[in-house]
Design a protein that fits this description.
The radius of gyration is 16 Å and the shape is globular. The protein has one domain: Rossmann fold. It has 187 residues and is an alpha/beta fold. It is built from six helices and seven strands, in the order αβαβαβαβαβαββ. The longest helix is centred in the middle third of the chain and has 16 residues.
Length: 187
């Protein structure tokens, strides 16, 4: 019973973004000043919870994947960035198919997979090692270039930024100030 309640609470937190930082940056503000900024994007909608028991990082059919809504969500987000003339200097993705597919359907350019963006939610990778790899990646980026895009998972974004995001949600990390913001794509 406890496991069911915890599972439902976790799903509630994922859905309603209740841990989100109150500081928000509008898309227009981001457009004006995005050098030295990293956009952490949670992969688009991939219904379900975690990954199947037969998960294999090399086989998409063993993973939780984007559905038609998630694909459309990715395309819409990419189109919104393009409409606002936002181009990313570099794009990175987790090795998970739902993240790579999100990056692909954004249609913003080529991307590289990086192990610092992989999900440690079910223990498929080591949490500390993943976050250490992410810190190295972040530290390797020039604060005078950008913006950068990282398509990843809820647990990675929440651990690095402290912000909880819904599918397709985004947080901005400023390499210069080390501050974190929610990115409001509607304004």
């Amino acid at each position: 019973m406890k496991l069911i309640i915890l599972s439902l609470l976790f799903k509630f937190f994922l859905t309603f973004n209740v841990f989100a930082n109150e500081v928000t940056i509008s898309l227009k503000e981001f457009q004006k000043n995005n050098n030295g900024k990293i956009v952490f994007m949670r992969h688009a909608l991939a219904p379900g919870y975690g990954d199947p028991a037969n998960f294999n990082i090399s086989e998409c059919e063993t993973q939780r994947n984007l559905d038609a809504t998630g694909i459309e969500q990715s395309k819409l987000i990419g189109a919104t960035f393009k409409k606002n003339k936002i181009k990313f200097t570099k794009i990175f993705s987790s090795f998970w198919c739902r993240c790579k597919d999100t990056a692909k359907f954004l249609n913003m350019g080529s991307f590289k997979v990086h192990k610092g963006l992989n999900s440690f939610f079910q223990g498929h990778v080591d949490r500390n090692e993943t976050l250490e790899q992410l810190k190295k990646l972040v530290n390797s980026l020039s604060s005078s270039n950008g913006p950068y895009l990282m398509v990843t998972h809820y647990v990675v974004i929440q651990s690095f930024t402290g912000i909880s995001l819904p599918s397709g949600g985004m947080a901005v990390y400023d390499l210069n100030t080390k501050k974190v913001y929610n990115l409001d794509m509607k304004n």
